Amino acid sequence: MRKFRFNLQPVLRVREQAERLKQKEFAEAVQAIRRCERDILYFLSERDAARDGLRAAEERHIQPWQLVFHRRYLNHLDTQLHRLHGELLNLSRKAEQKRLELVGASREKKSLDKLKERRRKEYEYEAGREEQKTFDEVGGIYRRRVR
User: Which one of 4, 54, 64, 96 has the fewest CB atoms closer than 10 angstroms to its CB?
Assistant: First the structure.
């Protein structure tokens, strides 16, 4: 009996490779989001610490130039937070696009996988029929000889 051979195997390999590439791109996009979220948390904690420092300094009657310094630093942190929130939104959009591309690549690969499995079942069915036909023929010959 000959071995099962799927004619579209090279196409399936290309689609599997494309799916792995899309998985990698999506994972990188998710990592970029996580880094941005980590940066946002860092700047939020810095801003909270700076506000606490300003409150403590105001209680000690600080110099006006120190107050200006604290206010500028808080403004800088707020600007950075605003920039990071915009970047996070942009990264989220890109990640969603990468996810949709991954879903499409997975769908294409899965359709070929299903076709391969269907063809394999057809092959096995036909091979079983051929085998049964051979057994029946051998059995018939044996019966004719026994009589």
Answer: 64
Residue 3 domain-assigned? Answer: no
Q: Which residue has the higher pLDDT, 140 or 34?
A: 34
Query: Could you give the number of structural domains in the chain?
Result: 1
- The CATH number linked to 29 is 1.20.58
Please write the tens of the pLDDT for every residue from 117-135. Answer: 999 999 999 988 988 888 8
Range of the domain at 88: 9-109
Buried b / exposed e along 117-141 (16+ C-beta atoms within 10 A)? eeeeeebeeeeeeeeeeeeeeeeee
**DSSP state, 60?**
T
Q: Decide: pTM greater than 0.85.
A: no
pLDDT over 80 (residue 12): yes
Closest by CA position to 50, among listed 94, 89, 17, 81: 81
